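Structure ticket #2291
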Amino acid sequence: MHLDQSEQTALIELVRQAAKAEIMPRFRHLEGGDIRQKSGPDDVVTDADVGAEAVITAGVQSIFSDPIVVGEEAAALNPDIISNIASAEWAVIIDPVDGTWNFANGLATFGVILAVTYKGETCFGLLYDPVLDDWIVANKGEGAFFGRPGAAPRRLPMAQKKPLSEMHAILPGSLFRKPFGPRLAELSARLGRFGNYRCACHEYRLTAQGRNDVSLTVSMNPWDHAAGVLVVEELGGAALMLDGRKYSPSENKGPFIVSAHADSMPELQDTFGWLAEHLY
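Resolution: structure written out below.
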């Protein structure tokens, strides 16, 4: 199952409108009361998150017939809605401001992520950059494309396989503070380069554009990953749990690896698979 062109266009335009109305006017204009903590000082929500999610949630109701909507901020209030993804005929998963910490601190590395699932399987993914008003989009079975206003969509090329020593990687900084941090740091030295952007939207965009090769993730929030994993898979990549199971947007326990090239996955599992016994 995939979306027709009119549905894809409607979702892209909805996200663009939400960003223009609710996100960009607040960027670098937030005051103290506009930023609130959720689980801790690094996990925050702003009025932009809440406003954009409300606009997108209302908009998708006119695009789909009776969809389940799973937004990050709604799930913060009612985590049980995440379990609806697996059983819903249509579900729309929204991260209204991905990279909220960056956004709240005036860094332009943030985005909007939207995924559509059909009977638990992701069929559409959108990675939108509100700052530059461009996007990467994937419709299952049709490849992935870069889009911007006034230009024809540009098909993104399939990923190229690289040796481990040349791979660029995205690794969560929190892992280096764990007792096994030294071993992870030693393994990371075998990579070409590694870093972290605190924004899944732009991390997946980097991978889709051939500028990142592997991501190790410990957080399984579907709004962070469902769209990006589909984009990577459409470009020849793969996403697997460290215990070998295939990634699913209804999965809620990590960690997992995203590889830009599917053939690199066995080597990456050999390299990082030992973390599974510590993190599951």
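Closing remark: Residues 5 and 257 are 31 Å apart (CA to CA).
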